[in-house]
Design a protein that fits this description.
- The complex is a heterodimer of chains A (143) and B (433).
- Chain A has helices at residues 16-26, 52-61, 82-92, 120-129, 137-141; strands at residues 3-11, 31-38, 42-49, 66-77, 97-104, 110-117, 133-135.
- Chain A is α+β, with helices and mostly antiparallel strands and 143 residues long.
- In chain A, strands 1, 2, 3, 4, 5, 6 and 7 form a seven-stranded antiparallel β-sheet that branches.
- The longest helix of chain A has 11 residues, at 16-26.
- Chain B is α/β, with parallel strands linked by helices and 433 residues long.
- Chain B has two domains: 5-328, ANL, N-terminal domain (Rossmann fold); 332-429, ANL, C-terminal domain (GMP Synthetase, Chain A, domain 3), CATH 3.30.300.30.
- Chain B has helices at 5-8, 12-33, 35-44, 65-70, 104-120, 139-150, 163-172, 182-194, 216-226, 340-349, 385-403, and strands at residues 84-90, 98-103, 128-131, 154-156, 177-180, 206-209, 229-236, 241-247, 255-257, 262-267, 281-287, 298-304, 306-307, 319-320, 325-326, 331-333, 336-338, 357-364, 367-375, 408-412, 427-429.
- A nine-stranded mixed β-sheet of chain B has the order 4-3-5-6-7-8-9-14-13. A four-stranded antiparallel β-sheet of chain B has the order 10-11-12-15.
- Chain B is globular, with a radius of gyration of 23 Å.
- The chains are: A alpha+beta (143), B alpha/beta (433).
Chain lengths: 143, 433
């Protein structure tokens, strides 16, 4: 029920994002979702890809500092209230979100929300108990 | 005006014979009382009785800052503690400071030399001296204080910081002489302007500015913006503190070094060969009257040259040109001595942090800024911003705790900083010269 996410340290200078994209392209790695958190000096690029190990290898070889993090992908109807319901569940169970990002599913009327939790196992258990659809890694990478 | 006519205008011949006599005495003293010097002299194959003239000085071994560290804290003292009445210290590269001790007579001599320096800079009895050098372990505050009292001026022991209060007191108390770092004098002018006050309308007449390197261009700026005569003063705690050398207000060109107490030499910092007057190199000073911690041929690492031509002020003591740099990697940031190795030692203490770093020194307005670039590696990297920012803040705090200066940490990608094989460039100094 956990999804592997790649996080990359990126200095705020021109060409760095392009370099990440180029390295992934060389390995024919496809990006499923991404989010960029930034400060005035640096950013952290978070990626979900179809081949995590190939991407990690390519980026490390390219000189980037990279880490693998486990996140949770939740599927919700792509309509008003979809996100609200999930956040309410988390709030009621006092589960803290470190960060999150979302994207719309291509061939269905669903949205996928990616969550990074402190206590991932507890979060997955709670979400499933409340009937929330938590996606497996295989499912997500193949989207 | 001259404070001590007898000594300050002593004809060269008499001055040099006084130096030779005192050099002989100090050689005997350190050989007899400081085991470090006995060993150094023996290794160099020289005995105090071999020192008969000034030319024999070059037979003596050099003293390095490292020697003071190796003998921390009191190992180089030539007098027992019951004769030491004051102890000062300056920051050291590994957290241990460089320690100096003064006998009652040392304090007396220091006071005399600071009195000479004040008068050479145009200060006199009746002046209100606003002393904004730091009081404490740093020699600046107390050194200037004693000299100012000696000439009969009214001293305001302000110490550093609290700029608004400084300005209020300066204006209300009618300060006529300002003692601080050159950059702080400009900072005061700007802070006054922000308050809508023109510092040039104050009674300030002279600034006696030191403890960091500055330039003729900065002098012009200070004189225009602060509305004072800006006088350069030279000193270092190992030798004395402030008052080793001073510009006279008559010439404002080169700093008279008090040669009845110090013998200056200029050497090539690589070959250690003594250079003739007028040639630029590293300043080496021998203290010939110090009792607490006399130093033989101390390598100051400051780059200058000796100006032997007579000065229009009438003093016979030779002058040092404005310090133009360092022969080591020491930086002076906001008046604080910083060695890149100190930053390195802080980084090494934090688990997972790479010892590769780059220091960017710059100036924003009138104040120096320090940015430390540190590489992020797999151990320190996190996918959460707050963790990385926490790391930056922790390094900033550790540097502040050790060196007493604020800096800004900038995290950079791995392998972007040069590795330490060969001569890695660790410092980029962007400050205008």
């Amino acid at each position: 029920m956990k999804v592997q996410q790649i996080s990359i340290f990126i200095e705020n200078k021109s060409g760095r994002l392009a370099e990440v994209a180029r390295l992934l392209d060389e390995r024919k790695v496809s990006i499923r979702a991404l989010s960029l958190a930034d400060t005035s000096d640096f950013g952290i690029l978070r990626l979900l890809v179809d081949n995590t190990d190939a991407a990690l290898f390519a980026l490390k070889e390219g000189g980037f500092t990279v880490s693998k993090t486990e996140v949770v992908a939740v599927e919700v109807p792509d309509q008003p209230g979809g996100l609200s319901r999930i956040l309410q569940v988390l709030d009621e169970s006092q589960i803290n979100v470190e960060y999150m990002y979302a994207f719309a599913e291509r061939n269905a009327n669903n949205a996928i929300i990616i969550f990074r939790f402190d206590d991932i196992d507890n979060a997955i258990g709670t979400l499933q108990a409340k009937g929330v659809s938590v996606l497996t890694g295989e499912r997500l990478y193949s989207l | 005006m001259i404070w001590n006519d007898d000594f300050e205008t002593l004809p060269r011949e008499a001055l040099e014979s006084l130096q030779a006599k005192r050099l002989k005495q100090v050689s005997e003293r350190v050989y007899a009382t400081v085991p470090f010097y006995r060993q150094q002299f023996d290794q160099a194959g020289v005995k105090p009785e071999n020192i008969r003239s000034l030319d024999d000085l070059r037979r003596l071994p050099f003293t390095l800052k490292q020697d003071m560290r190796d003998n921390y804290p009191y190992g180089l003292f030539a007098k027992p503690l019951d004769q030491i009445v004051r102890i000062h210290a300056s920051s050291g590269t590994t957290g241990k400071p460089t320690v100096v001790g003064y006998t009652r007579r040392d304090i007396e001599n220091w006071t005399e030399l600071m009195a000479r320096s004040f008068v050479a800079a145009g200060a006199h009895c009746g002046d209100v001296i606003h002393n904004a050098y730091g009081y404490g372990l740093f020699t600046g505050g107390l050194g200037a204080h004693y000299g100012a009292e000696r000439i009969g001026a009214s001293v305001i022991p302000m110490s550093g910081g609290n700029t608004k209060k400084q300005l209020m007191i300066m204006q209300d108390f009618g300060s006529t002489v300002l003692t601080c770092t050159p950059s702080y004098s400009l900072f005061l002018a700007e802070a006054a302007a922000e308050e809508g006050v023109d510092i040039r309308k104050f009674k300030l007449r002279v600034g006696i500015l030191g403890a960091e390197p500055w330039s003729e261009r900065m002098r012009d700026e200070i004189e225009a913006k602060v509305g004072i005569k800006a006088i350069d003063i030279y000193g270092l705690s190992e030798i004395l503190g402030p008052g080793v050398g001073i510009e006279c207000i008559e010439a404002q060109s080169g700093l008279h070094i008090w040669e009845d107490h110090f013998i200056p030499e200029i050497i090539d910092p690589h070959t250690c060969e003594v250079l003739p007057d007028g040639e630029q190199g590293e300043l080496v000073i021998t203290t010939i009257t110090k009792e607490g911690i006399p130093l033989i041929r101390y390598r100051t690492r400051d780059i200058t040259r000796i100006i032997a031509e007579p000065c229009i002020c009438g003093r016979t003591h030779r002058r040092l040109a404005r310090m133009s740099g360092r022969s080591d990697d020491m930086l002076i940031i906001r008046g604080v001595n910083v060695f890149p190795s100190q930053i390195e030692s802080v980084l090494m203490q934090i688990e997972g942090v790479e010892p590769h770093y780059l220091l960017i020194v710059d100036r924003e307005g009138t104040l120096d800024t320090l940015e430390v670039q540190v590489e992020v590696n797999e151990q320190t990297f996190s996918d959460e911003i707050k963790v990385l920012q926490g790391l930056s803040r922790r390094i900033e705090k550790e540097i502040k705790d050790l060196l007493g200066i604020s800096c800004r940490i900038r995290l950079v990608e791995p392998k972007t900083l040069v590795r330490s094989e060969g001569k890695a460039q660790r410092v980029i100094d962007k400050r205008p010269k």
